[in-house]
Design a protein that fits this description.
Largest sheet: none
Order of helices and strands: HHHHHHHH
Mean pLDDT: 93
Low-confidence stretches: none
Length: 262
Amino acid sequence: MLSARSLFQEIVDNDDSFQLFCSIAASGESQGGWENARIAALVPAGMRDLAPKITRHGADEDKHGRVFNALLRKRGLPPVPVPPETDYTMLLERHGIGLPHDKLRGGEQLTEEDVVVYLSHSRVTEQRAADQMNMLVRNFGDHPEVGKAIRVISNDEDNHLAYCHEELLRLAGQGHGRTIQRVLRESALAEIRIYRDVSLAVMEHMGRLLKWPAPKSAALAAGIHAMYAYERFSGWHQMVRLRMPERRDALGGAPVSAPEFA
């Protein structure tokens, strides 16, 4: 029977698939770290109170990249190049989710609307990240090799999502509500499509590495398409709702290091 637990167990147990999985994850997290660091440096003067939280967000993403690379080192495996069709972060940027990298590479200060757009995009992508990591914690939180890493990253992703909710609600109260709702909707509908495409690409690569039979690959692809159909019909609404989180000021303190990995 196919399940998230059995599939991830297969990936973890095989060096080649584990190497690809960790490489994809490390690359995406490191890219997110760079993006947040640049946004923090370019925040407009009237929103400088956000800069430490955006910096903390970026530091967490950098830490996650180091964690995945450390898992590879523990097995004596080097990172491998990330196939472009599996690069979730870059595909998001290419489809307009996130601030353009050309803008972030420059030195021009961002506008308030840029920051609102960044936080709205982040609320959508952090929902995906938090959901994925919570699923892994349920199934692998006690795994002797990857369990500690998964728990550390999951806690951070929950913090990131809480921070996005709280800051967007504050900005909505300052008159940015229409922009926030528009960007949330556009981002959610684009993200679910990109996530579907990336999931299909990742499963295709994993299938080759693990020599899955055609019926198994077809069943997994059908499941991914079914999830997309659900999200396109109604599931995306979860990504655009805003509510005050239980974790208040989730990124207000110093970042928590992970010396056991990095």
